[in-house]
Design goal:
Elements (H helix, E strand, L loop, with lengths): L5 H8 L5 E6 L4 E3 L4 E9 L9 E7 L8 E9 L5 E17 L4 E7 L17 E2 H12 L2 E2 L10 E2 L11 H12 L2 E4 L4 E5 L8 E2 L4 E6 L8 E6 L4 E6 L1 H7 L3 E5 L8 H12 L7 E5 L10 E5 L5 E5 L2 E7 L1 E8 L13 E2 L5 E8 L4 E8 L8 E2 L11 E4 L4 E5 L4 E3 L4 H5 L4 H8 L10 H17 L15 E2 L4 E2 L41 E3 L2 H6 L5 E4 L3 E7 L5 E11 L2 E5 L6 E2 L11 E8 L4 E8 L7 E11 L12 E2 L3 E4 L2 E5 L5 E5 L3 E6 L6 E7 L3 E3 L8 E5 L2 E10 L4 E6 L1
Parallel strand pairs: 9-12, 13-19, 15-17, 16-23, 26-27
Antiparallel strand pairs: 1-2, 1-5, 3-4, 3-21, 4-7, 5-6, 6-7, 8-10, 11-12, 14-18, 15-16, 18-22, 19-20, 21-22, 24-25, 27-28, 28-29, 30-31, 32-33, 33-40, 34-39, 35-38, 35-40, 36-37, 36-39, 41-42, 42-43, 43-44, 44-45, 45-46, 46-47, 48-49, 49-50
Length: about 725
Amino acid sequence: MITVSDGFKNAMKASARELKALLTDGVDEITDVDDLQSIKIISEGNLCRTVMKEAQATFFGSHDYLDTYVNIGIGVKKVDTTYEYINYGAFRVVEQNYDKENESITIKAYDRMYEALQVFDITPTYPITMAGLVTAICTELGWTLLSDVFPNSTRTIESDLFTSQKMSYRDVLNQIAEASGSIIYFDKDDKLAFRQVSDTILETLTTDDVNSLKIESVYGELNSVVLSRQPQEDNIVQKDDESIVTYGLNEFKIINNSIVDDDRESWITAIYNTLHGIKYYPFEANTQGLGYFEVGDRIKVTDMNNNQFEVVIMSITLSMTGGLIETISAKVPEKSTTPYQYAGVIGQTIKKTEIRVNKVEGDITALTEEVANAMTLPKQPEPPESPEVDDMYLDTDDNVIYRWNGEEWLATGLTESDLENYYTKDETNAQIGIVADGINMSVEATHTLATSAQALAEENSEDIVDIQSNITELQIDQDSLEVAIQGIGGTNLIKNSVGLKGSIEEWQEFDGEGNLIDTDNNGTILNTSDIVENSESGSAIRIDEQFIVQTFSTISGGSYTFFCRFKKLGELVLQISGITGDIPITAGGYVDETWAVFKYSFTATSPSTTIKITNVESGTGSYAILTDTVCKLGEVNGWIQAPNEVYGRNFRFDEDGFSVTSLTDTFKAVLDNTKLGIYDTSSGSDKNMALFSKDSGLITKLVAQDELVVQRYENSTKAVRFIPTSTGLMIAVND
């Protein structure tokens, strides 16, 4: 909280108050009593992130502040008739727009964090403490550091982790914020400050102070911190089991942090101690405009029934156009869930598979190491108390391994030996398929792309709902960037896995004349609300006493996983070529006509593998619905599309070409390797409106506005020209 006098607070909370605002570059001073029309200051923050404040101002006059620093302040007249001001610090003007009609200028500016949006380009002496690195950054950028004492500040960074990645200074500071569990921002004195959310209540706002208040369900307490490596989901966890029982799991996940990566087990404790116990109500409040709050402040707000709620301020918007308006708020942190049974937990040791990137040498190694006292499977006659989702134990009475699904213990098909298996380093390298020599990293170009993406994401964060992208191959070297998108989509070997193409022909076998070999080889595509709510893909294939089948390329001896979500009545079996017998698609304790997940791992026996899924005839109206179906090399935990497949609501891109269907009209466009076509679909079939191939062209209606020429290929000397004129049509014949 910005330090102000009690007189300032009392004046700000008074029913009648006199306010002033000013903007100055140190030479000129603009105030609201003459030329300053409006100001707005926006502060957006979050746990373990940097804050870059934005300022907007509109004023009359011919002032030119572009690429200079201005200071913005708001003052209030106190009882003693003097004005006390809050100086919100220096803001660099990056945009200046002149409104000729109103003869006004509007500027957009950012605080000194804006200076961090440049490539990290310092070479301090390593090893260096984290505090030493922050000090070096401040020295390079001309900043003043408020304090070099913060969580993990004395921990050592052994080598340069940033220059080869072409990170910006802000990227590095965000990693430092994560590694210290801190919010990093510039205070009103333009000093770089680290702060942690505490339990101290700095202010209690009454109903007199708040014009409107929205309160959501309490978040917290935060009781788990995860340091994760992606995409391999290599996790180190520290958690409070007692708190999880009381409050449920509230997890904070830090992903791919270069600073902590090589020694996460020792870094995590200070981060956990800083974040553990954070609890607050997500909220949004419009105050009467107090002006002295900062991101990270813990306060109390009061509703109309005099109920008080502890909140933590993460976002502040302060606007002054005549009067002062203030909006303060905080959202629920992004939810994540970690499969703890596969994670290293502080106090336990683990078998872990980890991908490490040597950013200096440019190589990537997959490491597998067995750590002492490996996590063991509980062996006992009774289920463990207070289980978490996916916890397992071996029932010594019936020698069955059970898994907790959140509601009940379900029998698995696992054996104790299944859980003890782990890959050697060479096996891990083979499984992950990473070859150091085949990775070329583009440092500068990658950074440019990442910086642009980050800027857009931050600017449009409110509008971004969901972004999914899959790139099959990314080749990077130190001098250039090659992005070879050999397949758009994912790594699913099953084509058209859930019927998004609009047909299931990939799941069927045909004779030479295009007829189904077996009429029972069929199914129905479904897109019901039930499927949308219970799947990732939003589409499914239903088989009623039928079967579907598909063949795809595999690596002989490779370890593959089949995955699907299903709902069934009756028997549903999976057949895999090279594996004897039917494999029941079910789950422990399965209840008919409910949704469940099925997963099966197998070793391919040949260069191609055929899978067949059958809803076995039972005479009871049996059926099965399959969705999110995947088969891929290695582990599977959710649905992905196949290479060269992108399906959406009104478009399709796969090996057959590209098509777009109008959502509001009866037209469809298709582009493949033989033609470009536009079709009218109003009759239920595709009517050619325009069709162009290498041999011919057809169009239903054609308007040539300036000239229509008919000629031989590349021979304009022999041609007929139809040229519209103001009074008619001229026909010119070149003979």
